[in-house]
Each structure stands twice: as C-alpha cells, then as structure tokens.
Amino acid sequence: MGHKLIVCGAVGRMGRRVIAAAIEDGRFDIIGAVESRIHPDMGKDAGAVAGLHRLNIAITDAFAESADVLIDFSLPEAADRTIDYCVENNAALVLGTTGLSNAQHDKVRAAAEKIPVIYGTNMSVGMNVLFALVGKAASMLGDDYDIEIIEQHHRFKKDAPSGSALTLAQNICKATGRPYPDSLIHGRSGKDALREKGAIGMHAVRAGDITGIHSVIFSTLGETVTLNHTAHSRDTFARGALRAAKWLVGKKCGQYSMADVLGL
C-alpha cells in the first residue's frame, strides 16, 4: 500500500497533472480528489478527468478520511479549509497555492506547529536550484550590478508577480541586505523613470499558454549575467510535489521547504 493521498484543486491545470503523475508513480493511493462544489466536473471520475484510466474516485467537495498527505494546487480561497483538514486529521500538507494573504501565511506557520508542512512557491527541482543560486550570484557580483526579474506565465494566472518571482527577490534581498519588499519596482512608466540604485525591477508577462519562465538579469556597464529557468510542462511541478509528499510523510511537525527535500 502506498501513501494515502488527497489532491485539492483536482480538476485544475496542476491538479490533473498531480493525479496523473501519482498514478504513474505507483507509490500513492489516491483516496480523494477535491474541487469547488460549483465546478462542472463535480462527480466525474478523477482518473478519467486526468486523462488516464478510471480510479473509481469521484471529484467531490468533501475530504476523505485518514489521508497521509494532501497536495493542494488550488486557489487562495480554498487554502483555509485545506489547512484545517490537515491539522484536524494529522495529515502532512504540501501546499503549492500562491497568492496567499498575510493571515493565511500566519495560518500555515501555526499549522506547522502541529503537522509537517511544505509551502513552496515552486515545486520543480530546477527552480529550487535557481532559488539557491540567485542570492549567491548577487553577493558575488556586488552592488554595481543592476538586478531585474522577469517572469512569464499563461494568460489564466491570476496573481502577479508570481510567487516564484517573489521568492527570487526575497532570496536576493536576504543575501545582499536589501529591504524586502521595499526594494522592488513593479514595472516602469512615465517620463522620469530612471533606475534607482539598489532597486530590483519586477516584471510580469501574461500571454498564451506559457507554463513558466523566470529570468534574473544581473547587468553592469560592460556585461550582463542572466540566470534563467524554463518549465517545459506542468509535469515538472507535479513530480516535484510528489517527491515532496513522499519525503514529508512521517516527518516531525514543522515548516519545511523544497530546499530541505532536495538537500540544498
């Protein structure tokens, strides 16, 4: 028997890929597929919706009992219910939903006093390596290098900038002593929009079906260094979330990160 898994946001772009990847992985028993009660796919088979064989698990708005771990890539308005379930049922939580409010961030931290939690703005292995690299690069290059972050996503993404772009900025600020979020400049416009020394430019692109591209530009007079991550498909995030879920089950309560999972 594998780890008993509930997937929240089960019919979303990420939820479907998590279900498909969990079926292919073979080390999980999917016991629940949770979605908003007004979703048109309510009641359909979760495996069929994910594009694979039937699981005999219906899409529902109710949580199954006795889950070992829950993976949530839904919307911020659903996060409180997910967190409450995990605390009440002593289930590990892998939370990939971005755009959480400050109160919800506090709720995640409070939950981590009772259960093991991974809250990650990006679950891909490569992106987490980039998270680890950008602060080191900024420190090594020094104050004379201007820093710009450009993130690109599909037209349906609601929050901007992306959670991953903000994590990149946070890591740079921490490594270089810049204040966060005060150092961020979100886009530029106007006749007097000269770059301010020490600022980090932040730019969000929303177009077509772009899965996810993050670029961090370090530039000074004479040269430019660019660190870039491109997600080819959502499967990289799904596989990362499952890797996190397997690692998290059985851990002591606490808030962990993908860096912990990957040993970074």
In short:
With about 260 residues, the protein is of the alpha/beta class.
Question: What does the model show?
Answer:
- This protein has about 260 residues and is of the alpha/beta class.
- It has two domains: about 150 residues, Rossmann fold (3-Layer(aba) Sandwich), CATH 3.40.50; about 110 residues, Dihydrodipicolinate Reductase, domain 2 (2-Layer Sandwich).
- The chain has eight helices and twelve strands.
- The strands form two sheets. It has a seven-stranded parallel sheet, sandwiched between helices. It has a five-stranded mixed sheet with strand order 8-9-7-10-11, covered by helices on one side.
- Helix 1 crosses helix 7.
- The longest helix has 17 residues.
- The relative contact order is 0.16.
- The model has no long low-confidence stretch (mean pLDDT about 95).
Low-pLDDT residue intervals, each spanning 5 or more residues: none
CATH class of the largest domain: Alpha Beta
Anisotropy-based shape: elongated
Whole-number mean pLDDT: 94
CATH architecture of the largest domain: 3-Layer(aba) Sandwich
CATH domain topology of the largest domain: Rossmann fold
Approximate strand percentage: 15-25%
Integer count of domains: 2
Could you give the count of β-strands?
Answer: 12
Relevant CATH superfamily of the largest domain:
NAD(P)-binding Rossmann-like Domain
Write the H/E string, N to C.
EHEHEEHEHEHEHEEEEHEH
Q: Which structural class best describes the helix and strand composition?
A: alpha/beta
